[in-house]
Design a protein that fits this description.
The complex is a heterodimer of chains A (about 450) and B (about 290). A two-stranded antiparallel ribbon of chain A has the order 1-2. Chain A has two domains: about 5-200, no CATH class; about 205-449, MetI-like (MetI-like fold, Orthogonal Bundle), CATH 1.10.3720.10. Chain A contains 19 helices and two strands. In chain A, about 35% of the residues are buried. By secondary structure, chain A is mainly α. The longest helix of chain A has about 35 residues, at about 95-130. Chain B is built from 13 helices and no strands. The radius of gyration of chain B is 25 Å and the shape is flat. The chains are: A mainly alpha (about 450), B mainly alpha (about 290). At the A-B interface, helix 5, helix 7, helix 9, helix 10 and helix 11 of A face helix 1, helix 3, helix 4, helix 5 and helix 6 of B.
């Protein structure tokens, strides 16, 4: 049913130019000409409008946008002596940030046009080949029809992909480009210009001034990601097993109690936790009233204590999710195998260790890897609970509990070091990619899944 | 477990059950405590953010009245609520449309760029979303949209194109034979999509729509960057969050908890309704 068309032999564009008639030849210069010549008016019009529009844009803005990409602006905002007037006048200056953004957008537009140009040539070639084989050339109506059939994927995907292009790819390219500039708090447009600096930011983060912040934060990010994922998983499995113990009544009620906590939006539950755990908060007050402690426990204000608190609070959030998922797996376990094991004299722990747990692990592995990556990027828990604090004077722009992502956020919003933030974003990406690749090649569930 | 005497199984079982019940009860208390505490606080009449006891001394509904009437004018909760509703309904419609068409195309249709695209999507998803946050803000500013609700709708919906995994996993499980037999009967792909696949896909459409609907109620970081200081265009999440800044955290705490309760109720109900899809999504969609 799904034959691959790519195996068909086509003539090259060079041959098309040599052998083709005038319409085909002109198609190389005037897009859509061959379509017009063969009564595919709508298609030809689309190509032609695209080309004319592109040339018009190129002359008006495009060339300037592309040219400015080299320097990212040369005119600084400020007072400049105007010899005509004989006095200083305010010069508007270039905005490096906008120049970079427009430059990248211009490159994307050029890429889109190149793609269209190739599509245009392919279309001309297609018509040429149909003619050579004495077949009917599809009319506009046929073309529109094929959008609902052979080319239905184009109909479905064009709008979503435009969204991806403008709101995912363009911003990403922009931020990646920023990593190679000196766009920091000293070079903020529109007041100042920034320019290309090559790999300077990367060396700064890995071996330079920022390394003394980067590596501790990276270390804590990794510890946090592993501990948070593993602890939530193990305790979630235990909870699911407890609820599914034979003879326990109201299983559904128990489950609902825990699922209820999952449903509360995180920004609410975490802000409340921050309040509960405050030095002057209810939990400390309660413990003092009972007389267990005389001084407040610094749940969120002591660096080590804060890290432990974060992991424990994260259990509150993560355990129900694991419980919910593993319950389904436990209920579908092969009961005969377990009964056979009991017959052979295995105790409950042995059954768990050798039968139940490995099966749960097998099904959960892909989602565990995703959780691990999710935890590397877990913004909410840290930001809402401690805000990265307590402050650490040894770090640049980060607190003791900051993860790479929250640090990235601080760098963009507070200290305005966009270049460093971009470098860290890229490094986070590399980290996630390495984990995923490793998981992809080393785990059984992926291989068999 | 090599005991000589026959064990009293009944007694042992009973003891085990008692232990399990105890653990479950303690855990349930720990898990429910913060939620109960929010609700109690929203009815508390006296004190500020921190009081050294759990159960309020005086109960009142004034916190809710204060929240809904917004006497100070700085925290227009009703307005935020309407904003969020507009954004989430529009996002819901657009995202569902986008996610379902993307996942259907990538699951059921075969075309040249399919595999490369799946790989590119995987790579794009690995960049932290915050990295491009600032750039998105400037793009919206260049389009003269920053600070408007339309901007939020655009950003949330555009993100939907790369969250097709769960729905794709669902479409993958519908037998291809259905499509083939329809094709033999002369249906084109559009007809197969609308007349055969979509009616079968109600659960995944509901799931996609509800997730998209819930997003704007919970996200506060993107919304905050896009909205800046424009308080009247805030969504509920940023609005409530802004009530907890250092200067107002103490005086507005009970009002804040009242807002939390009002938001948490609908979200919780929706979530309870769709939890079974959630499980399917995590365990099946993840692998492929």
């Amino acid at each position: 049913m799904f034959k691959k068309h790519s195996t068909e032999q086509h003539i090259t564009f060079r041959e098309l130019f040599m052998k083709g008639g005038l319409p085909e030849k002109l198609s190389f210069i005037i897009m859509g000409f061959s379509n017009f010549a063969n009564k595919q008016i709508l298609k030809g019009l689309i190509f032609l409008v695209a080309e004319v529009g592109f040339i018009f844009w190129l002359i008006r803005n495009g060339i300037h946008a592309l040219a400015m990409l080299q320097t990212l602006g040369t005119k600084k905002q400020g007072l400049v002596y105007d010899p005509k007037l004989g006095m200083d006048v305010l010069q508007k200056g270039d905005n490096s940030m906008l120049l970079l953004l427009f430059g990248i957008a211009a490159i994307l537009i050029c890429v889109v046009l190149v793609v269209l140009y190739i599509v245009n040539l392919k279309s001309a070639r297609h018509i040429f080949e149909l003619k050579a084989a004495n077949k009917k050339i599809p009319s506009t109506k046929d073309d529109l029809k094929s959008l609902l059939n052979e080319r239905f994927h184009q109909t479905l995907m064009t709008i979503p992909l435009l969204g991806v292009l403008f709101f995912t790819i363009l911003p990403l390219l922009y931020m990646i480009a920023i990593a190679f500039t000196n766009y920091d708090h000293n070079n903020l447009p529109p007041k100042n210009l920034f320019t290309w600096v090559g790999f300077h930011n990367f060396s700064n983060v890995i071996t330079g001034d920022i390394a003394s912040t980067f590596f501790p934060v990276l270390g804590w990010t990794l510890i946090w990601a592993v501990v948070a994922t593993v602890s939530c998983f193990l305790l979630g499995v235990v909870l699911a097993l407890l609820i599914n113990t034979k003879g326990i009544k109201f299983k559904k009620v128990w489950r609902t109690i825990f699922i209820l906590t999952m449903a509360v939006p995180q920004f609410i539950s975490l802000l409340i936790m921050r309040n509960l755990l405050n030095d002057a908060g209810p939990i400390n007050a309660l413990l003092k009233n009972i007389g267990w402690i005389s001084k407040s426990i610094p749940f969120l204000t002591d660096p080590t204590m804060a890290k432990i608190t974060i992991i424990v609070v994260n259990l509150w959030i993560g355990i129900p999710a694991t419980m919910l998922i593993t319950t389904g797996i436990i209920q579908n376990l092969d009961q005969e195998q377990i009964e056979a094991a009991i017959m052979d004299g295995a105790n409950k722990f042995q059954i768990f260790k050798s039968i139940t747990f490995p099966q749960i692990l097998f099904v959960m592995m892909p989602s565990l890897i995703q959780q691990l990556i999710g935890n590397i990027n877990n913004f909410n828990v840290i930001y809402l609970l401690t805000g990265g604090g307590p402050t650490n004077s040894n770090y640049y722009g980060a607190g003791s509990t900051d993860l790479l992502v929250t640090w990235l956020y601080n760098l963009t919003v507070n200290t305005m070091d966009y270049n460093l933030a971009s470098v860290i974003g890229i490094l986070i990406f590399i980290l996630s990619a390495v984990f995923s690749l490793w998981a992809y090649t080393h785990t059984n569930s992926y291989k068999e899944g | 477990m090599a005991q000589k005497k026959p064990i009293n199984y009944k007694a042992q079982k009973k003891r085990n059950r008692a232990i399990v019940y105890t653990i479950l009860t303690i855990m349930a208390i720990v898990w429910l405590f913060p939620i109960v505490w929010i609700v109690l606080n929203s009815f508390r009449a006296e004190g500020g953010a921190f009081v050294p006891y759990i159960i309020p001394k005086h109960f009142t509904i004034n916190n809710y009245i204060k929240l809904l009437t917004d006497s100070s004018g700085n925290y227009p909760f009703v307005r935020w609520f309407v904003n969020t509703l507009i954004v989430s309904v529009c996002t819901c419609v657009l995202s569902t449309f986008i996610t379902i068409s993307m996942s259907y195309a990538l699951s059921r249709l075969r075309f040249k760029m399919r595999r490369p695209f799946l790989k590119v999507a995987l790579v794009l998803n690995m960049f932290p979303a915050f990295m491009s946050m600032i750039a998105i803000y400037y793009i919206l500013k260049a389009l003269d949209l920053a600070g408007s609700l339309l901007a939020l709708i655009l950003v949330y919906s555009a993100g939907a194109a790369l969250t097709f995994y769960v729905a794709k996993g669902f479409f993958d499980t519908i037998p291809m034979a259905l499509d083939e037999s329809a094709m033999i009967d002369g249906a084109n792909k559009w007809q197969i999509f609308t007349k055969i696949t979509l009616p079968l896909s109600k659960p995944i459409i509901v799931y996609t729509a509800l997730t998209a609907f819930m997003g704007p109620w919970m996200d506060f970081i993107f919304a905050k960057i896009i909205m800046g200081d424009d308080v009247k265009n805030y969504t509920v999440a940023i609005g409530l969050y802004s009530m907890m800044t250092k200067t107002t955290a103490n005086s507005l705490f009970m009002t804040f908890t009242a807002g939390c309760v009002l938001i948490a109720i609908p979200i919780t109900l929706l979530f309870m309704y769709m939890q079974k899809y959630y499980v399917e999504g995590v365990t099946s969609g993840a692998v492929k």
